[in-house]
Amino acid sequence: MNTTWITGAAGTVGSALAESLAAKGHRLVLTGRDAERLQTLADRLDTPCHIAAGDVAEPGVAADLRVSAEAAMGPITGFAHCVGSTFIKPLHLTREADFEAVMKHNFYSAAYCLKAFVDGARKHREPSAAVLVGSLVAHAGFPNHEAIGSAKAAVAGLALSTAATYADKGIRVNCVHPALVVSPLAGRLTDSDEAIARNSKPNPMQRIGRGPDIAGLMAFLLSDEASWITGQNINIDGGQALIHPLPRG
């Protein structure tokens, strides 16, 4: 039975992924900052779960969480990093502290966790797979996304280089790049039917993503069916990064 570690497990994408993997028989390590929400998630999943609260954006936390999880569950062969934040302000209004916070929550958390996962995978020497969550804004220019676009581009680069380093060690690493997803993280962009309808219009498929849209691709990339896929940055965005429909009359 595969054991998969999900960070940000109680969030919109993390919880959808947990449900998908539990249905496929994975044992789960669920981490995040809110132990109560993690326990609520674990209670509704029909699979063995290990839960641990901690802020993986802080140095040393991810490594400690991985060690304690493997002591309880055995080798972790799958990893999904669903931690992140958003920040929408133009460059001239972005403070140095804002850049630091955005990089910490998005890039540093991914780097610390991926390193902890790779450290474990190199020890147990079993085929392993990781998937990180980037963003459409990492490679498609959107106004006022300078800080978050840069941080998510760093996540994409982290996935690509790590995949190259460990491909011959049986460790696969990929990154998915969602467009706007209905979630508390998206705040006012998705918190009402009116907002959802308005923000669906720029998308070629005329809709906003949902947690299971992202989780489905992540679950596939973690599976044996994707055993020859690594080093990929994959859009999951209704075509928004690449498709530009003609204006409607």
Automatic annotation (TrEMBL):
<dbReference type="InterPro" id="IPR057326">
    <property type="entry name" value="KR_dom"/>
</dbReference>
<dbReference type="InterPro" id="IPR036291">
    <property type="entry name" value="NAD(P)-bd_dom_sf"/>
</dbReference>
<protein>
    <submittedName>
        <fullName>SDR family NAD(P)-dependent oxidoreductase</fullName>
        <ecNumber>1.1.1.-</ecNumber>
    </submittedName>
</protein>
<dbReference type="InterPro" id="IPR002347">
    <property type="entry name" value="SDR_fam"/>
</dbReference>
<dbReference type="Pfam" id="PF13561">
    <property type="entry name" value="adh_short_C2"/>
</dbReference>
<comment type="similarity">
    <text>Belongs to the short-chain dehydrogenases/reductases (SDR) family.</text>
</comment>
<keyword id="KW-0560">Oxidoreductase</keyword>
<dbReference type="GO" id="GO:0016491">
    <property type="term" value="F:oxidoreductase activity"/>
</dbReference>
<feature type="domain" description="Ketoreductase">
    <location>
        <begin position="2"/>
        <end position="192"/>
    </location>
</feature>
<keyword id="KW-0520">NAD</keyword>
